Amino acid sequence: MEYIPHTPADIERMLRAVGVEDIEDLFSDIPAEIRGRYEPLGLEPSPEPEVRRELERLAARNRRLVPFVGLGLYDHYIPAVVNELASRSEFYTAYTPYQAEISQGTLTWMFEYQTMICELTGMEVANASMYDGGTALAEAILMARRAVGGDKVLIPRSLNPFHREVVETYCRGAGIGVVEVPYDEEGRLALADVPPGTAALVVQQPNGLGIIEDLRGLKERLGDAFLIVSVYPIALGVLEPPGSFGADIVVGEGQPLGNPLSFGGPLLGIFATRREYVRMMPGRVSGRTVDAGGKEGYVMTLQTREQHIRRERATSNICTNSALCALRATIYLAALGPEGLRRVALLCLERAHDLAEDIREIPGFELALNGPFFNEFAVRCPDPERTVEKLYRRGFAVAPPKVAERMGLPDAFLVAVTEKRSEAELVGFLETLRG
Amino acid sequence: MGTIYHRGKRGRRATSWPETVRPPEELLAYIPEEARRKGLPWLPEVSQVELVRHYTALSRMNYGVDTGFYPLGSCTMKYNPKLHEELARHPGFADLHPLFPEEAVQGILELLWRLGALLKGIAGMPGITLQPAAGAHGELTGMLLIKRYFEARGELERRKVILLPDSAHGTNPASAAMAGFKVVPIPSNEHGTVDLRALEERLSEEVAGIMLTVPNTLGIFERDILRITEMVHEVGGLCYFDGANLNAFLGRARPGDMGADIFHFNLHKTFSTPHGGGGPGAGPLAVSEPLLPYLPVPRIVKEGDRFRLAYDLPESIGRVHPFFGNVLVMMKALAYILTLGDEGLREVSAGAVLAANYLRVRLRDVYAVPYDGLCKHEFVASTANLGVKARDVAKRLIDYGFHPPTVYFPLIVEEALMVEPTETEPLETLDAFVEAMRRIAAEARENPALLAEAPHKAPVRRLDEVKAAREPVLRENPPVSPG
């Protein structure tokens, strides 16, 4: 066994030191009745070449469609330097930086990441990651209730339906009611009134249907209740950060920042808030301090919020998070810089709007909503199911009509366009729709 | 060393991108004026070589399993096979969007289904969900399942209590509280295991369940486990098992045979997937028959040689993850199980338990071992007998080139050092660790300042945590007038 180094002589020496005859004696404290019931899996060990062959067979059984699909996860180009640096095993074979003196690498990039997330979102503090955008949003709602009380949360009808399902699971468990807020004919949030007992209003920017929301005046209408904004971080290269509109918490799916699609996991939950709420925030945080010689360094800080100290009174149960995905996001943002991020966002804008224009010109095709969008939009056509099937057959993936339908928009499929979509792919996509 | 913000210069770039066809102003006009970003975010501006040197330098200030021995108790820091890293980059896995149609992702669905089937076999339990992204996420999912179960039986009003041994991981009480349960602790007896009398006293029809770690965080197997689960079942409660310590009995015993109703796996512990500097992990959950109707959806169903997603559980608790959980982590766990086979699974627990017991007997004449006796994959020592802080011994270990054990946990042992060597360390490494620990004990008597001021050989000396918490500096701030 290539991963276990013990030779028969090593085993013999260790057994003797322990004072037992046989390996099996080490398990004598497990009741024999339990051990006796064990049933093996019926699985022979496999050498590396065979394991590789089997996994490659599974990989080959997947069809790599060209993704014109988003819903939180977007196919952006990942610079080689991100993969290369994040593959350094000093990063990925470490764990949570409990021993700060030999974890300065992790603690430093966490501090950088927190800075970058604050800059993107316009917030004052950020944690070092949550599991994904959906659970980050759910945790934001729980935090809002801790901060302001209340028993309900307002959720847009246009919220990413996959995030919404996670939020509903968490809210049901925590006894928080979910109240749906409709959208207008442009697809933008139509908030009528804020009922008493509201802990928070959730807004997604751009929303699940791709439409850019108007965040002005929302916080003022909420009073004490929290304004929680869920973002698409790449779009923040061209969209005003939610912090400018008084957001109390900003969350989001961070996968688009240098992480592969990975069939939906691992992902990266972004979480940022205002400084006054930092002690209510879930998750790990890196802080700057000095060592015994006065030299600058970093530690995990504000740990009295966390489960390993505060137990049932912790701000969250989160422990293991998405550190390596956050490292990739950090390197990605450093690799792009402010101009690179803006360029990527502008390329998304341009390619998405050019494609939308061309689709509109196809007889029978139209955009389902006429609100402003970033890089994702809903298309309506005579037979959307068949159109989507046809796209699949030609190697293109869009979000099927059932997805938009869950946001109250029937007979439409969602299309997302990133800077990675080539001219040939865009032409092929259009021709498929036309044909 | 400074952050990336201390490198580079305005105008430098590490990546290149195509030009847009139209000028930016024209494109920005697609965005309503009020939503248009006014300035650019303050991000680093570095050349590619500066970027590479910075993160290479940071990586060298880190200690990972690939650097050396990492006996961090409760975390199972075993070796992370390199085959898995290479496979995870395969575009046939990495480039799949979770909204691709089922026909396009048969391979990944097969992978998930097979892993699920194998995990059910390892747990000896009939149900599985792969969605939880980490152990604590699995715990929360488990608590929501328990809630749903009692809701369906009309008992939710009275089932308010989750029982927890005082040696439990901090995530256990936090997860129970998140689901709205009241946590009632059970004291440990003199053997470090659940005190049956204390358990008996706390059992009532208010008890929704118990959360147990098996073996417990002292590395001790609960000899009375069958009695404990039976007692909880007798009052109608459910038994949650925290699987962080599965490495202790892999391939030899199954939680399902011990009376578990819910069992979470930590794929990043037992199944060799990397810890990533704090994640991503994965926390799949196996469940017993009565909980099957409440599992998260979608389930992955096999029909002939085809796989599909089923949303056929009307009483499901719903999704706990936007899609299918941490799929690339699961890919690595499957590769690991296929490599091991039944024989390898047994070898893992044999190696892990043997190494832990070896270290225990080699250290117990120098360090106190409060619950001394046959341990499983880890044991807890104490520095209290030496009159030094566990923290100081831990920091001194850094100078000897080792990652310290977990310190100050479990809470029931003073000055605790929780040591988990795993099965992947050569005997020479274990011996070198013993030697270092013994020398540190001698230093503690002869020159305690050496410990108190350690580490001496790390990139930084001991860091001021009090200052960090009192005056939190949590980000870089941009220069007052940029550029």
Question: Can you walk me through this structure?
Answer:
The complex is a heterodimer of chains A (435) and B (483). By secondary structure, chain A is of the alpha/beta class. In chain A, α7 crosses α8. Chain A has helices at residues 8-18, 32-36, 48-60, 80-86, 89-92, 104-121, 133-148, 161-174, 218-222, 307-310, 323-360, 384-393, 401-405, 423-434; strands at residues 66-67, 125-126, 152-156, 177-181, 198-205, 226-231, 249-253, 269-273, 286-290, 296-300, 366-367, 376-380, 396-397, 412-416. Chain A contains 14 helices and 14 strands. Chain A folds into three domains: 8-48, no CATH class; 66-75 and 338-434, Aspartate Aminotransferase, domain 1 (Alpha-Beta Complex), CATH 3.90.1150.10; 80-331, Aspartate Aminotransferase, domain 2 (3-Layer(aba) Sandwich), CATH 3.40.640.10. In chain A, 37% of the residues lie in helices and 14% in strands. In chain A, strands 2-8-7-6-5-3-4 form a seven-stranded mixed sheet, sandwiched between helices. A three-stranded antiparallel sheet of chain A has the order 11-12-14. Chain B is of the alpha/beta class and 483 residues long. Chain B has three domains: 4-60, no CATH class; 85-339, Type I PLP-dependent aspartate aminotransferase-like (Major domain) (Aspartate Aminotransferase, domain 2); 342-468, Alpha-Beta Complex (Aspartate Aminotransferase, domain 1), CATH 3.90.1150. Chain B has 14 helices and twelve strands. In chain B, β2, α7 and β3 form a beta-alpha-beta unit. The longest helix of chain B has 37 residues, at 327-363. The two termini of chain B are 22 Å apart.
Summary?
Chain A has 435 residues and is of the alpha/beta class.
Please give the number of β-strands of chain A.
Answer: 14
The Rg value of chain B, from CA coordinates, equals 25 Å
Structural class given helices, strands, pairing of chain A?
Answer: alpha/beta
Head-to-tail CA distance between termini of chain A: 56 Å
Question: What is the average per-residue confidence, as pLDDT of chain B, rounded to a whole number?
Answer: 97
From the alpha carbons, calculate the radius of gyration of chain A and give it in angstroms.
25 Å
| Cα end-to-end separation of chain B | 22 Å
Strand order of the largest sheet of chain A: 2-8-7-6-5-3-4
Choose one word for the global shape of chain B.
globular
Structural classification of chain B: alpha/beta
CATH-defined fold name of the largest domain in chain A: Aspartate Aminotransferase, domain 2
Domain count of chain B, please report it. 3
Looking at this structure, what is the CATH superfamily of the largest domain in chain A? Type I PLP-dependent aspartate aminotransferase-like (Major domain)
